[in-house]
């Protein structure tokens, strides 16, 4: 019954947008946009409405429907579904745009490049070659209106309405009856005598020449306009002239036309076409070829169209990583293409791959992920960071490769805002404590201090109070000078997180000790920091009501905004130390600071100390602080505490490079007393290596060294100064002055705490210098070694004397 009849159009699984596209193909077909009802994916729908009295057109439309349904080729419009009723024909294809409409939009946007035109023409010629050479079919309708472009910028050949077989029974090509299409017919079709000698591809190649002319010059007004190439590139003009030649016999086969254009210097001989051809055959390429391709791909992506990168390169990169074992080489082009994606697409396509990459054990992939984390960190949510990424990243702190340890430290600047309480205040602090205390690379210890200063505002109030002062105090005692500078800058960058009590009793005593540091850059930073902290204390002393305002951040909860002001010093410090680490690793791939800075052995009294290794003088910049005038009035000093975050804290990179050149003679100052301290410090380091504590106790040990009075008592020299030497009490420095020179720093020896062995970076290494009992033990151990050496020499001498010289020919019985 009629009321039970179903409407096939309504039940069709694709929804049609009623308004047809502008610039659609001429003829009976209308092009509409559409989408699949189940998934919402976009499609294109070609619609033909059956009209009474138009049986010929209906037969042509049905023939095109059949051809498109049976022909499958990457360069021919892809058929998805179709509907045929008595009233209409619906042909569903991939989502495409008419070529004329696409080129117009690209020209208006100023993004049209010859590269994509060369690849588009390559695709159309390849489709014609498939039809003529493989299928023996003549398209018979090549023009601008029958070429379409998909979302990746790929050109597709459509308009199969008037296609016929090249092996026909003497029947000519079907008539079109549409003037807009007949203007592309070659001139030999007007000769009905049949005496013209031609090839089966001659007509289609003429129409290809018309298409090339229209792509570069716009709509073809008449056939005579083909004589003027117009804007066609010079490298393409000779091949274009072959296509529109009057003699159909000399028009090249589509396959030969491709070869001619792909020759060196040809129009289709470029990086873009080569990349596309490689991607089409990537499944059959060798692994070494794929590796080389992906390594070179990132250099070319900037010149490629954006749609091509998003819809063609990106899927191939994801597939290569997922199934092709491409490894770390896909990371650079992957993140480069990721810049073209919106946030939702990035979350769907890139983030799952990144999370999976972090679980890889490939070191090259891990270090590239850490280096490029800035490009994708904004797309990672906190649960993903804490549960899937951070547990893998922390393994880098324990890696034997210094470069990975350094990059892991630097990555914490980006991960810290997204870490939860346990990961940030407990797990991360354990690793930072171990790195700063025991890492054998000075630049990495310095980087750890810098990173801690940057993320200090994200820590909880209790963690800040327990960690920051102890950590920066330890950094100021590091043998590596840039680490000491970083410790001072750490105090400066987090000045608002300390109470006035801590400033007076913990921070200022540490900074005052740095005023006699052997490095001028450290002294300069220390003096500047002392002045600022003193001005802060003085302002509170003058007006006690300011105390609450000054200490408002001390007990405040962690806040991302509090660390923003410290971004400048942290940014350049990490960069400077990073380059320094790279130089250090390149220069000494397997060396440790204990190997590069070996202290000189104590020399017997009366012998001159060995001369230190000559180091080329490198000018050291004192940074922004030296450019400021030292004589400031009281008003300027009182406001200095408010300018910590606005100042440039000097150039740590330049200072680090200067100090690195002087590290070799750091512990070789040539004074006998300091040499004895070196040997005693080494003996103490060996003793501590036996009772090695766990990293968890590092922060507690820092708290234990808060007894500054005891530390100062231990630092006093146990030796009596020579007669005639002026005591340091005159300078109030706590150490004797070796001579009467005007500059008290000119003969200042290196810091008493020499650089220890790599295994002696224990948590108690900064608690103080050796005590009297330790000195006695060290001296006793030295005497025992000396006695043992003498005994061994005596035994060797006795054996040599007992044997005596052997006579020639004598037989050795023993």
From TrEMBL:
Is RNA-binding a UniProt keyword of this protein? no
- Residue ranges annotated as compositionally biased, kind Pro residues, are 601-617
Entry keyword set: Coiled coil, Cytoplasm, Cytoskeleton, ER-Golgi transport, Golgi apparatus, Phosphoprotein, Repeat, Transport
For whether the record's keyword set contains Zinc-finger, the answer is no
The Gene Ontology biological process terms listed for this entry are:
inflammatory response; intracellular protein localization; neuron development; retrograde vesicle-mediated transport, Golgi to endoplasmic reticulum; spinal cord motor neuron differentiation
**What Gene Ontology molecular-function terms does this entry list?**
ATP binding; protein kinase activity
- Start-end of Acidic residues biased regions: 761-770
Q: Where is the composition biased (Polar residues)?
A: 746-757
The record, for InterPro entries, names: ARM-like (IPR011989), ARM-type_fold (IPR016024), CIK-Related_Protein (IPR051177), Kinase-like_dom_sf (IPR011009), Prot_kinase_dom (IPR000719)
Which Pfam family, an example, fits this chain? Pkinase
List the record's Gene Ontology CC terms alphabetically.
Answer: centrosome; cis-Golgi network; COPI vesicle coat; cytosol; endoplasmic reticulum-Golgi intermediate compartment
Top-rank taxon of the source lineage equals Eukaryota
Q: Where is this region: Disordered?
A: 590-646, 662-814
Compositional bias annotation for Basic and acidic residues? 771-781, 788-801
Query: What sequence ranges are listed for the domain Protein kinase?
Result: 14-314
- Compartment(s) of residence: Cytoplasm, Cytoskeleton, Microtubule organizing center, Centrosome; Endoplasmic reticulum-Golgi intermediate compartment; Golgi apparatus, cis-Golgi network
Function as written in the Swiss-Prot or TrEMBL entry: Regulates COPI-mediated retrograde protein traffic at the interface between the Golgi apparatus and the endoplasmic reticulum. Involved in the maintenance of the Golgi apparatus morphology.
Per the record, the similarity remark reads:
Belongs to the protein kinase superfamily.
Q: Which PANTHER family match?
A: N-TERMINAL KINASE-LIKE PROTEIN (PTHR12984:SF3), SCY1-RELATED S/T PROTEIN KINASE-LIKE (PTHR12984)
Instruction: Identify this protein by name.
Output: N-terminal kinase-like protein
